[in-house]
Structure formats: C-alpha cells, structure tokens
Specification:
With 222 residues, the protein is an alpha/beta fold. It has one domain: TIM Barrel. The chain is built from eleven helices and eight strands.
Length: 222
C-alpha cells in the first residue's frame, strides 16, 4: 500500500520523505491556505521534493475553469495529478484530462456510486473521505470495502482507491486489510504510526543496560 502525506507543509514533507516513507502528496485549497504565503511557490517546491504523484486541486467549479486551472497546475511537473471535485463538471473535466493523458484524482467521494462514475470517467484515483462519513454516523470503512469489491469485479478499471480523511492509525490498518491502493495521512497520524510505548521503554532499558556495562568495561565500543 502506498502512503501519501496530506499536507502542504514543506517541513513535514521533507521530514518524512527523508525517511523514505512517502510515495506521494495530496493537497487541497484548505491545506494551502493554512500554510500561508504564495501557493505557487509551495506547489513548485513540493513537486521538486517528491518523485511520486502530487495531487494539486482546482478551485473552479465549472468545466472550462477546471480545464484552464488543471493545465496550469500540470506546468509544475509531470508528477502532478489534477484533483477535481465529484461533480458533473468535475467528471467532464476528468474525462477530458484523462483523454489527454493527464492523471486525475476525483475527490470528495462519499458513495460507491460516485467512485464507480469517477472510474468510468478515467480517474487515476478516487478519494473516499472515510473520516467525514464516520463523523456523521456512517461506517467509512464499509465504503472502502464496497469500492474495492466493485473495482475487483471489473479489472478494466485501472482506478486506484486513495483512502482520505484518515483520523487515526486504525484507519490505516483497516484500509490495508481491505487492500486499498493508497492512504493519505495528516503528518500527525503518520507520526503516531511510528510510536508505541513498549518501543520507548525497550530502548530506554537497552541504553540503561549498556551504560551499566560500559561502567565496568570502559574500553569496549560497538
């Protein structure tokens, strides 16, 4: 399963990319506005840091605007995936971009029907928002199961399931068990995935034992 970081924060992107953990990046207008500064500079830098796919989202809601913005976004790099909303105009733009060889991520997916239509329009990725479904009392992970079953039934679909709106590490494990292609995580969730209290205690014990050993064997080195 591929791991994308859901952020526009350059420090976080560099940090986790240097660990070899990142296969790509997803961004959206909210994340861009959160960072401040000039979004153009941020997007340009992200596409230089990351070798994998970088989803950059249009802000237009009508077809012609999406097409104009998507073409400009692609100028940042060949690894740019144009992110469009799950709307009639978004699906039309998805079809046009895909026909021209431009990869598309259809975002704001909340049903299996929407995922099916996005795949039919040629999307490289569909982004179901599981956390937001959980927030309103639905089981977001059941949606991932449904989409996975549908896509497996029709191998002509090459669309990847990109699980978004992840709230905690359990979501990641559940998505991996189902066989989702990608998860996109906020930096805080990726940080939690690396940690466990027993790991910390174990390391502290190892180091304490080594210091005791060195006290009686000062010339020994590893």
């Amino acid at each position: 399963m591929k791991i994308f970081l859901d952020t526009a924060n350059l420090d976080s992107i560099r940090k986790y990319n240097d660990m070899g953990l990142l296969d790509g990046i997803t961004t959206n207008p909210s994340l861009m506005s959160k960072e401040g500064g000039n979004p153009k500079n941020v997007m340009e830098e992200i596409t230089k840091i990351i070798e994998g796919d970088v989803s950059l989202e249009v802000v237009s809601t009508e077809y012609s605007g999406m097409m104009d913005e998507g073409k400009r976004l692609r100028e940042y790099g060949d690894n740019v995936v144009v992110k469009v909303p799950m709307t009639p105009d978004g699906l039309k733009a998805c079809k046009s971009f895909s026909s021209d060889g431009i990869p598309v991520n259809v975002t704001l997916i909340f049903s299996a029907n929407q995922a099916l239509l996005a795949a039919k329009s040629g999307a490289r990725y569909v982004s179901p928002f599981i956390g937001r479904l959980d927030d309103v009392g639905q089981d977001g992970m059941n949606l991932i199961k449904d989409i996975k079953q549908i896509f497996d039934n029709y191998p002509q679909f090459k669309t990847q399931i990109l699980v978004a709106s992840i709230r905690h590490p359990v979501h990641v494990v559940d998505a991996a068990k189902i066989g989702a292609d990608v998860v996109t995580l906020p930096p805080a969730v990726l940080d939690k995935m690396m940690k466990h209290p027993l790991t910390k205690i174990g390391l502290e014990n190892f180091l304490a034992d080594w210091e005791k050993f060195k006290a009686t064997n000062p010339d020994v080195k590893i």
